[in-house]
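Async update (no meeting this week)

Hi team, since we skipped the sync, here's where things stand on the single-chain job. The sequence we agreed to prioritize is pasted below, unchanged from the tracker. I ran it this morning and attached the output directly underneath so nobody has to dig for it. Comments welcome in thread, and please keep replies under the output.
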Amino acid sequence: MQRLNTLRFALAGGIYGAGCVALATICALVGVPGFKPFTDLLVQFYGFYGYSVSTIGIAIGAFWGLIEGFVHFGIFAWLYNILLGRWVPASGAP
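Output:
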């Protein structure tokens, strides 16, 4: 099994998180059915930090999605590498 590059995995997760929050905000602004409850939760979590369902909220939400995705995916990759090292011997070992 192969180790994950923690920084790259975290960055990919941050970009994914930013895209998801921005897309959900855009869909709620346009009026796509089903996105209002999700953006209501985002307002509860990120409202204190300036997020709202608005055009400026797209950028603010994307920023916080980037930060949160970076942290969560980074922790996941770091923990995965630690657990992988416990059960899989280093390459080249008999």
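Quick observations from my side:
The radius of gyration is 18 Å.
The chain is about 75% helix and 0% strand.
Reply here if anything looks off.
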